[in-house]
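User: Could you go from structure to sequence for me? I need the amino acid at each position, not a summary. Structure tokens:
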């Protein structure tokens, strides 16, 4: 891999915990200081998701944005592909690279 890994975790309610997602991201090789989190946000929109915005800002060409489940990152492959192509990086779900470009 040429770039660094950046991790993103999200839970839909403030009462839910992201510990399992965080542990999985660490196991996938994402450094703890490069894991960004949103709490209490549905995945139906990218608006007001500061953790996702921070994660996307932390990647550069050659970086890999890593999530534990696809729905933490995007609603569908078209949205994931739009994000990847627009920002020029790759994404992966639990170690499986998303190929959309």
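Assistant: Here is the amino acid at each position, in order:
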């Amino acid at each position: 891999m040429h770039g660094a890994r950046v991790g993103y975790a999200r839970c839909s309610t403030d009462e839910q915990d992201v510990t399992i997602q965080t542990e999985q991201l660490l196991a996938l090789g994402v450094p703890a200081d490069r894991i960004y989190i949103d709490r209490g946000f549905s995945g139906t929109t990218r608006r007001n998701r500061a953790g996702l915005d921070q994660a996307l800002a932390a990647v550069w060409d050659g970086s890999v944005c890593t999530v534990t489940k696809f729905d933490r990152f995007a609603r569908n492959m078209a949205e994931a592909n739009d994000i990847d192509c627009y920002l020029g990086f790759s994404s992966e779900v639990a170690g499986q690279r998303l190929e959309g470009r």
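One structural detail worth keeping in mind: The radius of gyration is 12 Å.
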